[in-house]
Amino acid sequence: MTDMPPKLAEIVEEFASAPREVVLEMMLEFSDAVPPLPAELAGHVGMEQVPECQTAFFLKAVVQPDDTVVTFFDCPPEAPTTRAFAGILAEGLAGATGAEILAVPDDLYARMGLAQAISPLRVRGGTAILARLKRQITEQLS
């Protein structure tokens, strides 16, 4: 899976090869891994809401001068599946460049095998998160 950052490719492979009954446990681990927002983003100032998600989900991507991207995500703990998407992206995209993130396939969650473990509505929300992240990066790079 050379079309995505190495950390993300590793996560995708772990999910794709995991037995279905383990996938939800793996997602819960990622939902606990979402870093807290820095103080300057408190109240979601400057963050974009993702209305396709069933729960309130906010994100922000910042392209640094060295072209790496810093991502920020916020979602309530009561929404572990949606938080898991944030945790997967936060860990998998850490240190990635804008170009690397833009190259992440739009069917990321299908490649992970999540369509068999969670509802299509949740997969659509996760896909929207990735799309909005890419759009923010594209806007900053142009």
UniProtKB/TrEMBL annotation:
Xref: Gene3D superfamilies: 3.90.1010.10
Limits of the Fe-S metabolism associated domain: 13-136
InterPro entries: Fe-S_metab-assoc_dom (IPR003808)
Family: Belongs to the SufE family.
Name recorded for this polypeptide: Cysteine desufuration protein SufE
